[in-house]
Amino acid sequence: MESSFEFQTVHDSGGVRIHCLPTQKFKGVGVRYYFHNRLEPDATELSLIQSLAKRGCEGFPDLRSITIHLEELYGSSVGLNLSKIGERNLFVGRLSFAAERFLPPRGAGLTDRLLDFFDALMTKPVGEAGEYRSESFEQERLNLRRQLEGLKDDKDGWAHERFLQTMYPDEPYGIHEYGELERLSSLTNPQVRTRLDRLLTHAPLDIYAVGDFDVKAITARLLAGSCVQGPKDDEPGPPVAHPVRPEQIVIEESEVEQARLLIGCPVDLTDCTEKDYVALHLYNTLLGGGMFSKLFRSVREEASLAYSVHSSLESHKGLMMISTGIDAEAFEPALALIRKQLEDMAAGRIGADEFSAARETVVGRLRSVPDSPGAWSHQHLERMLAGYSFALGELPSRFAALEPADLVAVAPRIRCETIYLLRSPSA
Q1: Does residue 413 carry a pLDDT above 60?
Q2: Which of 122, 274, 365, 412 could form an S-S bond across to 227 if both were Cys, CB 3.0 to 4.6 Å?
Q3: Facing residues of 88 across strands?
Q4: pLDDT tens, 100-141?
Q5: In sequence order, what DSSP letters do the residues of 79-118 get, joined into one string?
Q6: Mean pLDDT of 79-84
Q7: C-alpha–C-alpha distance, residues 301 and 295, integer Å
Q8: 319-326 β-sheet, strand order
Q9: What is the mean pLDDT of residues 345-366?
Q10: 144 within 8 A of 178, measured Cβ to Cβ
Q11: Cβ contacts of residue 373 below 8 Å, gap of 6+?
């Protein structure tokens, strides 16, 4: 990985940061807008906003006209979604388009035309008098209702949501990034439109541009955009501190063929150094990040106690989560074996082969990240939000330099707290 393949923060003022990575590695350009919001119940409004934007805007009043316009812009694409990082609910705009130097003369100005379109999509939705078009609003509210109600049909997803609500009953992290069904029923059209105005005016904004472009030109154009204007002064702030609580076991029942066992381990991020940050990610990979991991080999392969097992790390909130699919009667032996793997990690019972496999896996994944402009942008944003200054290109070498003792050193930061089991009533 070239050390020069790094973002330049070319603008940082008034709640707006612009990060550019000019490169001829790609023949196109990718632009990402990240509007920062607190993770709050008004995630429901944000969810409606991103779906209503696709319903039309000034000059392009419906999905058909939007599709035709993007095709005319040499197959450019625009997408919107919500992304949860810690207790931030990011409203994300994704743009992808051809670099102008590869286009015929009539393609000149493609960047301006697509950014103009994105501005209209965000700031000029179809409607009047401070409201969305009534028919569109009701249809998207119905679609969101079906989506939220459908969470129960995805048993893995439902277990995950119930686990988070159980572990974080009074913290924003327990809120789903697409909102709450109860709130949806009472929302009015003007309320959602007002939330859009607040998003555009007050949400701090990070913009990433990756590809073949002139940095000064694209920076000037981005700063001229309508959705960049405003004080951008509603900074979400750090996550709520999670209190130390005694371990709890929560068992719930639903019509499931396979029980789901989830274990929540708060991670103490107090005075967490850059080396600790990297070591925690490798710890997670060795614990449950692949077929070489301790959990996979011991719980699934050797003891045959689980259909699936893996761990994940949310380093912004400070949560390591172990997820398994098991037969309900295997709950106690599976839990005991999982505890043993955590004890082995803390005691330094780490084999040379499994450690090397975990480290090589992480390094390999990191070296492939620059092949995706979106993933590279997201990695940079996550590192920046975590408050670490090392360059992204340094990450592979930092992981490669770790030793088993570094994982043992961060193990005391991790403790089991919430053990959640979703099983069938007949189990």
Answers
A1: yes
A2: 122
A3: 38, 85
A4: 999 999 999 999 999 999 999 999 999 988 899 999 999 999
A5: EEEEEEETTEEEEEEEEEEE-GGGS-GGGTTHHHHHHHHH
A6: 97
A7: 9
A8: 248-253, 418-423, 259-266, 319-326, 308-314
A9: 96
A10: yes
A11: 21, 26, 30, 210, 211
The conformation of residue 302, written as its DSSP 8-state character, comes to I
User: For 213, which DSSP code?
Assistant: S
- What is the separation of C-alpha 134 from the centre of its chain, rounded to a whole number of angstroms? 31
CB count in 10 Å sphere of residue 185: 10
Tell me what pLDDT residue 4 has.
62
Q: What angle do CA 313, 329, 312 make, to 5 degrees?
A: 5
Of 160, 152, 157, the closest CA to residue 181 belongs to 152
Tokens in use for 375? 């993933």
- Report which DSSP code applies to 296: I
Nearby residues of 180 by Cβ (< 8 Å), 6 or more positions away: 41, 43, 44, 148
pLDDT grade for 3, boundaries at 50, 70 and 90: very low
The structure's pTM equals 0.95
Helix (H, G, I), strand (E, B) or coil at 272: coil
Q: Which two tokens stand for residue 31?
A: 């632009």
CA 98, CA 101: separation in Å to the nearest integer? 9
Contact 355, 281 (CB under 8 A): no
Positive or negative: CA dihedral 297, 298, 302, 306: negative
The DSSP secondary-structure symbol of 411 reads G
Does residue 2 register a pLDDT over 50?
no
pLDDT above 70 for 175 = yes
Q: Which domains does the chain have, with CATH numbers?
A: 8-228 (3.30.830.10), 248-423 (3.30.830.10)
What's the pLDDT at 311?
A: 98
Q: What is the DSSP letter of 60?
A: B
Report the DSSP beta bridge partners of residue 28: 98
Mean pLDDT of the chain: 95
| φ, ψ of residue 321 in degrees (nearest 5) | -120, 130
